[in-house]
Write a structure and sequence with these properties.
- The termini are far apart.
- The protein contains three helices and five strands, in the order βββαββαα.
- The protein has a three-stranded antiparallel β-sheet. It has a two-stranded antiparallel sheet with strand order 4-5.
- By secondary structure, the protein is of the alpha+beta class.
């Protein structure tokens, strides 16, 4: 049986859920936002992180 193991998230009893080493509060502070009055992180930024290996900058994210 062929299989592929890809570990993108981890559940730690102290830190909580981490995605590629970033905690949920870290992600909400560092992921790109829609701008304006909306300062919440866009879910597409988390997908970018999970598919790649880094948090996208606001410029990278809006260029696509």
């Amino acid at each position: 049986m062929k299989a592929l193991w890809y570990d993108t998230s981890k559940l730690d009893p102290i830190k909580g859920i981490t995605f590629r080493g970033y905690s949920v509060p870290d992600l909400s502070e560092n992921l790109p936002t829609a701008g304006g009055d909306n300062d919440q992180a866009l879910p597409e930024g988390k997908i970018w992180l999970l598919m790649g290996d880094s948090i996208p900058t606001q410029e990278e994210f809006l260029d696509v």
